[in-house]
Amino acid sequence: MTALPLESKPGTASPPGATWRLLRGANVADRIYKGILTTLALGLPLFLIVLVTQLVVSAWPSIRRFGFSFLWNSVWDPVAGVFGAAPMVFGTIASAFLALLMAVPLALGVAIFLTEFAPKWVRQPVAFLVELLAAIPSVVYGLWGIFVLIPFLRSHVVPPLRAVLGWTPFFSGVFYGNSLLAGSIILAIMIVPYIAAVSREILLAVPGTQREAALGMGATRWEAVWTAVVPYGRAGLLGAVILGLGRALGETMAVTMLIGNRHDIGLSVLQPAYTMAAAIANEFSEATTSLYLSALFEVGLLLFVITVLVNALARILIWRVARGTAAGSRAL
Amino acid sequence: MISLRVRRRFVSGLMTTLVGLLSGLAVLALVLILGHLVAKGASSLNLDFFIKNPVPAGQSGGGVANAIVGTGIIVGVAALMGLPVGIGTGLYLAEYGSGRLGWIVRFVADVLNGTPSIVVAIFAWTWLVKPMGHFSAFAGSVALAVLMVPMIARTTEEMVRLVPHSLREAALALGYPRWRTSLRIVARTALAGIVTGCLVGVARIAGETAPLLFTSLGNLNFSTSIAHPMQTLSLQIYTYATGPFEDWHRMAWAAALVLMGLVLILALAARWATRRGHGAAR
Amino acid sequence: MAQPADAPAPLEAVRLTALFGRRAVVKDVSVRFAARTVTAVIGPSGCGKSTFLRCLNRMHELSDSGWVTGKVLLDGHDIYDTGVDPVQLRRRIGMVFQRPTPFPTMSIYDNVAAGLRVNGRRSRSELDEVVERSLHQAALWDEVKDRLRASALSLSGGQQQRLCVARALAPEPEVLLLDEPTASLDPGGTQRIEELCHELKTRYTIVIVTHNLQQAGRVSDYTGFFYLGEMVEIARTEVLFTKPAKEQTEAYITGRFG
Description:
The structure holds three protein chains of three kinds.
Chain A: H1 26-66, H2 69-72, E1 76-77, E2 82-83, H3 86-117, H4 120-135, H5 138-165, H6 180-205, H7 208-216, H8 221-232, H9 234-250, H10 253-258, H11 276-283, H12 290-321, H13 326-331
Antiparallel strand pairs in A: 1-2
Chain B: H1 4-41, H2 47-51, H3 65-96, H4 100-113, H5 117-129, H6 137-161, H7 165-174, H8 178-189, H9 191-206, H10 210-213, H11 233-241, H12 246-280
Helix pairs in contact in B: 1-12, 3-4, 3-6, 3-9, 3-11, 4-6, 5-6, 6-9, 7-8, 9-12, 11-12
Chain C: E1 11-20, E2 23-33, E3 38-42, H1 49-55, E4 66-74, E5 77-78, H2 86-90, E6 93-96, H3 108-117, H4 124-137, H5 141-144, H6 157-169, E7 175-179, H7 187-200, E8 205-209, H8 213-219, E9 222-227, E10 230-236, H9 237-242, H10 247-253
Parallel strand pairs in C: 3-8, 3-9, 6-7, 7-8
Antiparallel strand pairs in C: 1-2, 1-4, 4-5, 9-10
C-alpha cells in the first residue's frame, strides 16, 4: 500500500523526505542499457573500417607493382608474377549485363503481374514461390547448372543458336558447357527474385490515383499500367534493376561452377570466361607467392568497391520512390 | 481494317497474358530446380546417408554425417555470435538511432549487406586462419556471423519500429524507465517479427559456401572440434559436384536435397512465427 | 488565474510554458486543480491542450526538442525541480490516452499489475488485491473476473480503454490525467467512461482533455478553455457554459469556431 494518503487535508504538507527523495538512481540502468547497445552497434562501422583497411594493406604490394595496368592487362601469369585482371573484370561485367538482359523482363513481368493483374488467390502463392528462388543456396544453383542446365544448353539451345547466329562473333567457337552463357543464365535466375521483390514494392508505392486517372481517360488495363504506373515508379524500378546488378556482381559459387574459370576475353558467349568473385574462390587456396595473394586481394578490393558503389546507387534511386520501405533494406 | 480500339484491347490482353507467362516461367524455374533435387537426390536418402561418413574417393557408399553435424555446429556457433550483436544493433537503431551515429550505423549495415561473401571470406582468412596457422570451423563461424549481423540488425530495427509509438508512451506514463520500456514492452511486442528475421538470417547463412572456402575448408572426416577444419553440407556439395566421380555427383544431389530441406524448414518456421505473432498482437 | 480559491490544491501549474525548440505551444499558464474534482480542458484542435496535459506528468520532455519552463506543483513540490526523477514521478500520476493501449503481450491481469511490478511490488496476494480493486474501480471486474489470464487483446475497444484506466489506477496515483479518453470509443463505451469519471472523482483529482463540449458539460466540475496555448478562462462548468466571461470562450462554446 502506498504511504501517501489518498485525500489531502487542508493545511497539511506532504510527509517530508519520504517520497520526495526522488533519486536519480534509476538513470543508471538507462545509461547502462544505452551503453551496451551503443557498443554493440559501434561494432559495424568499426568492422567496415578494419575491413577496408585490411583489403588495401593486403592489396598494396600488387597495387604498387602494377598500378592501373592491373585493370587492362589481360595476362594473368602466376609463374612469371604478372597479374592483369582485365579478363575477370570483363567477365564480371559481361555476365552481369547478360544476366540483367534476361532477368529484367522476367522480373518486371512477375512484379507487374503480381501487383496489377493477378487475381487475389494467385498472388500469395506465386509471390511465395518466387521468394523461394531467393532461398536456394548458390551452390545448389551451381549443381543444377552443371548437371541440368549445361546438358540442356548443349543439346537443345546451342545447336539452333549456332545454326542461326553462328556467323556472328557472339556465338562462335566450340561449346564445351562451362561458358559465359551458362554463367549468365544461372545468374539471371538467381537475381530475378530480388529485382521482382523490390519492383513489386515500388509498384505498390505508386499512388492508386495514377492508375485510376489513366483508366478514367479510357486507357486499357495494360495501357494504364504501362503508361501511368510504371513511368511514375521508373526511378525505383531502375533502382531495383541496379540492385539486381549488385547482387549479380558478387555471386560466387554458382558462377565459378559454370563459367569455365578461364582468364580470357572473348566476344563469344559460348566460351569460358571468368569473374572476379569466381577467380578469388578458385585461386585463393592455390596462391603460392605473396604477390599472387596480394593480386587476389586487389581483386577483392576492386570487387568490394564496385559492389558498394552499385548498391549505393540502387538505394538512392529506390529511396526516392519508396522512401524507407522495407524492400530497400530487406532485398539487400 | 481493325479499329484502333479493338487493337488496343488486343494488345492489353496480349500483354496481360505475357506477364502471366513470364511469372509462370519464373515459377517453372523453381519447379525445375526443386524437382530435380527430389528426382535425383531422393533415391540416395537412406539411413546410411545420414549417419555414415564419406568413404575414400572412388568407392561408393558412405554418407554425409560429418557435413550435417558440421553445418549444425558452424551455423550454431555463428548464430550464437551473430544474433545477439545483430539484435542489439537493431535495438540501438530503433531506440537511439535517430542521430548521426544511428545514420552511420544504418549506412554501414546497408553497405555490408551488399558486400560479396567472398570478400568476407578473405578477410576472415587474414585474421583468423593465417595467424593461427590452420583452418578452423571457428573462423568459418566468424565469417558467417559477420554476414549475419547487418542482416539481422536491419530486420530487427524494422520490426521494432512497427510497434506503435503510443504503446511506448503508455509504458513511460506508467513509470517504466526507458530501458525497461524498450525491452519489456517494445521489443517483447515485436518479438515475433524479430524471431522471423533471425530465422531467415540463419537460413541464409546455412546455405553459404564462399565464406567457408578458406576458413573451415572442409573435412572428409567427422569432426566436432571448432578449432579444426570442418565440413558442411554446402562445402560437400561443392566438392562432390565438381569432382570426377559419378557416385560423388549422386551424393551431391542428395546432400543438396537435405540442405534445401533445412533451408525450407527454417523459412517455413519464419512464416509460422510471423503468423503466430500477428495473431497475438493484432 | 486560479479558480477554486479556497479548496486545497494537489496539482497546480505555475506560469507553465511548454516549447518545442523555440516554438511555445503552452504559454504562461497558471491553474490550480482542486482535490477530488474533475476539471475539463476544452478548446479547438492543435491549441496545446494535450501538450499542457503532458507537462503535468513530465511526458512532454520525452518528445523531440520538448522542454518546459515554469513549475508544476504536486502536493506543493515542484516536479520539475532538479533531483526529481521523472520516472518515479510518473508513477504518482496516472494517464490514459486517446486510443486504448493495452500491452499486447500481457494478459488482463498482467496489464493491470504492470504499474505495480515496475515499482518492485511483487507479492502475489498484494497484486491480486490491487488488481481486483483497480478493475472494480474501472467498472470492468465483472466482465473479466473469469478470464484474468486471457490476452488483453481479447477485449473490445471500450473494455480495453477501461483496462487502461484500471492499469493507471493500480499504483494509486494522486492525479489522473485523461487525454480525450473516449475519442475512439462508441457511444456505449463513451458513456461507461463518463460514468467512471463520476465515480472516480471521490478518490482522485482528474484532469480531462476533451473535444466534446457536451462531455465536458456532463462530466466536469470545472472547465478551462484553452486557446492558442493560453488558458483563456477557467471556472465552474455551469458558469463557463452559461455565463462565460471572455468573448473567445463564448464564441467557441456557441460553435462559432473550432
